[in-house]
Specification:
Length: 551
């Protein structure tokens, strides 16, 4: 499916193609598939059937405009469409997927950054199910992470025992040879104490994770050699900077509550295929409309008794809506909102940004048999074998003998300013230190991506700056990985926020008598269940909000 073209219309009658004439895509003809009983049955997240016409039938015609087609906007749009709303998704860029995107270079496919998820990411995995791509990811049967130090010394973090959490890693950590015996012995009490912390306690967000670890007997080798290895990629900040609240969420949810929660998953195909293109097709089947290169200028609220009380201004033209989900990055949200919609919106500045740098290295031969590895004492923090995805859809697939490694550098402030050649040299050298076979291999290509605002900066004090989904304007909801999901800025957080925003606007629409007859149900979209959304963002308190820095 091509996503090209300045204005992409998706929708219309079943079987209608994607592409459409320029300008197509707002509204939609009567009969455009709205919801459908099948979709409602599948939705377990409390969203099903919330848009109702005046006579109580499902499939009312509320028009929901979603601004931003990252995972938050895509999941919000799908949830609204599945529940019976007429959805228009507006994306400023020429592609879908937001912070998860792919590009081609010299015949190979690269992602903007390695994206992994864990088995406990139930909302994200449900999203993949919904859009029909859950068979395009790998998910470990059992957590197994080789931690490789320069010189190649490797020790594994894995769940091998049959013990329940939090004891499922005990055997592996007892033999974790990157730490001395004294540090290994101290891990257990700290892990148990971390597991007991009350995530609802605001005091957790007043202290850094490293400070807490130190006060619980963890010395620098353990902070760097174990705790930091996990929190750095998940929260995109070093242990010395990240809030204890965020770190405790990561460890409790991923490692300390359920034995299989931290089994690692990653995409087998380029991210653009996994998310954007598949989600667009799913939205099409659900009767939605997608417009690319549609940069929203502002959102305005009209009189409450108006038939369409919200107006989204895009390309200078008003687009009328019954409800709006604003799913753009926190650095852009405040400038689009109506005045007063998010009290104290200037506080969004406080969320800051944290960068991620990714370096892809193409070798002429295989240099490691590991599919993923954590680098210890190396700038190559996490390494992934991306050969399969790089060759996805190409003739060279599987036959060239080359290996493509993707190297992820989280909290990459110190590398952001370096030139691509410097970063490539740094990482090629680091990989040669970690994997001896790389020393004699020829580097065919390197590619560097730098995401300056990859995530917000989860330092102490940020929990109180994350707004919930609700605004002061009825029918206008916020979504994005930066909202108050309780999760770090992740794909899981983005999907949860989208679902929460959908619930909010559907609840708003459900109380109204919608105009027009209930349309015919659309054919059921493929894919299994939408997963339940736990930890839904709380409603905003009017005093807790923000504004942001345009990047
Ligand atoms: C390099 C990198 C690596 C990462 N690694 C991981 C990982 O391993 N695991 C993980 O779970 N998460 C990871 N993340 C984080 C994850 O990708 C994000 O948290 C998530 O995708 C954010 O989704 P979102 O929908 O909230 O926002 P975004 O994806 O930022 O989507 C917002 C969308 O809004 C659009 N937009 C902005 N302004 C306008 C406007 N005025 N009009 C219309 N559209 C607009 C943007 O173009 C964008 O498409 C990573 C992120 C990066 C950058």
């Amino acid at each position: 499916m091509s996503l090209g073209g300045p204005t992409m219309g998706i929708g219309g009658a079943a079987g209608m193609g994607i592409g459409g004439a320029a300008g197509m895509g707002i509204g939609g003809a009567a009969g455009m598939g709205i919801g459908g009983a099948a979709g409602m049955v599948r939705s377990e997240g409390g969203l099903a059937g919330m848009v109702r016409s005046g006579d109580g039938r499902p499939g009312g015609r509320g028009h929901v405009v979603v601004v931003g087609a990252g995972l938050a906007g895509l999941s919000a749009g799908l949830a609204c469409a599945d529940a019976g709303a007429r959805v228009t998704l507006l994306e400023g860029r020429p592609r879908l997927g937001g912070a998860t995107w792919s590009f081609e270079r010299n015949g190979r496919r690269f992602d903007n950054g390695q994206h992994v998820f864990l088995r406990c990411c139930t909302a994200y995995r449900g999203f993949l199910d919904r859009i029909g791509t859950s068979n395009q990811v790998h998910l470990q049967d059992q957590l197994a992470v080789p931690v490789v130090a320069p010189g190649g010394k490797t020790s594994w973090i894995r769940r091998t025992s049959r013990l329940p959490a939090p004891f499922h890693l005990a055997a592996s950590l007892a033999s974790y040879s990157h730490l001395g015996l004294a540090d290994r012995v101290r891990l257990g009490p700290a892990a148990l104490a971390l597991g007991r912390l009350d995530l609802a306690d605001p005091a957790l967000d007043q202290v850094s994770f490293a400070d807490w670890l130190t006060s619980h007997g963890q010395r620098p080798p353990a902070v760097d050699g174990l705790w930091g290895l996990i929190v750095l990629p998940t929260a995109n900040l070093a242990a010395s900077e990240v809030s204890l609240a965020m770190a405790a969420k990561v460890f409790q949810t991923g490692l300390l509550s359920q034995a299989d929660a931290a089994d690692i998953g990653w995409t087998a195909v380029p991210l653009a295929q996994l998310h954007g293109e598949a989600a667009a097709a799913a939205l099409e089947r659900a009767g939605g409309t997608v417009r690319l290169r549609a940069k929203v200028e502002r959102i305005a609220a009209t009189a409450a008794f108006s038939s369409h009380p919200l107006v989204v201004v895009v390309d200078g033209q008003p687009l009328h809506a019954d409800a709006v989900v604003l799913a753009v990055p926190h650095t852009e949200a405040a400038s689009l909102l109506p005045a007063g919609a998010l009290p104290h919106s200037e506080r969004l500045d406080g969320l800051g940004v944290s960068p991620i740098v990714n370096v892809g290295v193409v070798y002429d031969r295989r240099v490691t048999d590991l599919t993923l590895a954590a680098g210890l004492g190396s700038p190559a923090q996490w390494v992934f074998d991306r050969t399969e995805a790089a060759h996805w859809g190409t003739e060279t697939r599987g036959s060239s003998g080359e290996q493509v490694l993707g190297v992820s550098l989280s909290a990459a402030d110190e590398w952001l300013g370096q030139r691509p050649e410097q970063l490539s040299d740094l990482i090629v050298g680091a990989l040669a230190d970690l994997f001896p076979a790389a020393r004699s291999a020829r580097v065919l290509d390197t590619v560097v991506t730098r995401e300056r605002a990859a995530t917000f900066r989860a330092v102490p004090g940020t929990a109180a700056l994350r707004p919930g989904t609700k605004t002061t304007v009825p029918g206008l909801a916020l979504a994005g990985a930066w909202t108050d999901t309780g999760w770090p800025a992740t794909m899981e957080g983005a999907v949860r926020s989208g679902q929460a925003a959908a619930r909010e606007v559907l609840h708003h629409l459900g109380g109204r008598v919608m105009a027009g007859p209930a349309p015919a149900a659309a054919p059921a979209a493929p894919g299994p269940t939408a997963s339940p959304s736990h930890n839904a963002p709380s409603h905003n308190t009017p005093s807790r909000n923000i504004r942001e820095v345009l990047t």
